[in-house]
Amino acid sequence: MSNKAMALKGEGRDIIGLSAGEPDFDTPDNIKEAAIAAIRRGETKYTAVDGIPELKKAIAAKFKRENGLDYKPAQVSVGTGGKQVLFNALLATVNPGDEVVIPSPYWVSYPDIVLLAGGKPVPVETTLEDKFKLKPEVLARAITPRTKWLIFNSPSNPTGAAYTGVELKMLTDVLLDHPHVWVLTDDMYEHLVYDEFQFVTPAQVEPRLYERTLTMNGVSKAYCMTGWRIGYGAGPEALIKAMAKLQSQSTSNPSSIAQWAAVEALNGPQDFIPRHNKVFKERRDLVVSMLNQAKGISCPTPEGAFYVYPSCAGSIGRKAPSGNVIGTDEDFATELLAAEGVAVVHGAAFGMSPFFRISYATATELLEDACRRIQRFCGNLR
Ligand SMILES: Cc1ncc(COP(=O)(O)O)c(C=O)c1O
Q1: CA 34, CA 271: separation in Å to the nearest integer?
Q2: Cα 58 from Cα 53, distance rounded (Å)
Q3: Is the alpha carbon torsion for 235, 236, 240, 243 positive or negative?
Q4: Ligand 1 pocket, 82 CB below 6 A?
Q5: Looking at residue 211, what is its pLDDT?
Q6: Where are the beta strands (DSSP E) in 240-339?
Q7: What is the mean pLDDT of residues 139-150?
Q8: Rounded mean pLDDT of 302-307?
Q9: Which helix (H) or strand (E) holds 283?
Q10: Closest ligand 1 atom, residue 107 Cα
Q11: What pLDDT, in 10s, does the model give residues 349-371?
């Protein structure tokens, strides 16, 4: 959708892109300066495959400070983005036929990486009524003797849903009954939560899962560093070693310069995070309110990330200005782009229809304009 939107923009069309999964804020200056200083010091050579000791130490300190989790540097793995950490973990552990439980809607990469590893993705549905949060009984039903991992993502891409301590504990209780199931928690949006929401992560809520949890996180989203490509994970040493072995024969170390920038991100001032969150929260409230005023759209208020995942069920079966009937959420996104120049991502891409994802990590005036166009589009459907 981003590519389509860019192509139309190139043709001179007035397009508003709401499909990108990255903050519109720039990387903070102190982080940029740390990278420049690293270059000047000559930190431009190969490093240890899965991260420099200084970064592993900063990550271990972050886990202690923010999540109350004790990890030694040897339990920490640094990769080229959170995606590589996830990729390494799944490729290192999933055997042919192994099942990986993935709550849907999900971030698009999870099932594809599982497939690449020879495993079987097992999507488990959530509902709009449950605000897209997995129910413990649904999780229990999805687990079989072949289940290797549960992939857990809170706050979620694409829904923004985040689990409270109580909600998460109900899921970790289920996992206590299934000691063969490991937990891969993707905490990438940890810092992007609103309305005093308290973020929690599985190993913190249930310490008995510590020995079978990989806690994954990164600097991409909260520190506005998507292009720097630094993500990390922490877990049992044997798993971390296997992941490093895989990385040593693929990409080797993440960029030495980006690693030093990440040290500054984690150890330096954190005050810009609440400043950004204030803006994100205002945008979330604006988008949710305006979308709920659009005919046939229903949009819950998510706890975090910078996405909303509204239902477009009310548009299905209706006729767009082009004369085409909207049969799916992909049709909805295509017709919306054609008629009003607003680019969103259709829900089928995330495994749950009929919905679409909007990223509100874009200028407030543009969001307002985009929501007005969506209202007009929905109002014009026949
Ligand atoms: C849920 C989730 N996990 C992981 C990632 C990957 O992060 P990175 O850019 O650090 O690889 C993303 C990026 O969009 C994401 O949305």
Answers
A1: 17
A2: 9
A3: negative
A4: yes
A5: 98
A6: 307-308
A7: 98
A8: 98
A9: helix 272-292
A10: 1
A11: 999 999 999 999 999 999 999 99
